[in-house]
Amino acid sequence: MKYMYYATLYLDCDCIGVNFHDFPNVNTLGKDKIEATKMAKDVLEGDLLAAEDNWIQLPERTSATDVQTKNGESLLAVVADTSLVLVNKKEGC
What DSSP line would sit under 19-55, residue for residue? Predict the structure, then answer.
């Protein structure tokens, strides 16, 4: 399944922090914007996979115009595709 949610990028000491507006408990960081963006996709996909596996209803995506950013923060649209995650199963297990 494909999803898109908004995250906020912010400076956190020497790193770039990432918070998701619709998933307040999903956070990550990276050493720069490129790594933070990659980590945002990874952490969102992991959370979405867990929600799918446990039949947890996902929040509706907040519109970009409704996401409030503070001074120095930037908005990031994160696309996650849980269908790309394959489970390797050994024969007989």
Answer: EESS-TT-EEEESSHHHHHHHHHHHHHHHHHHHHHTT
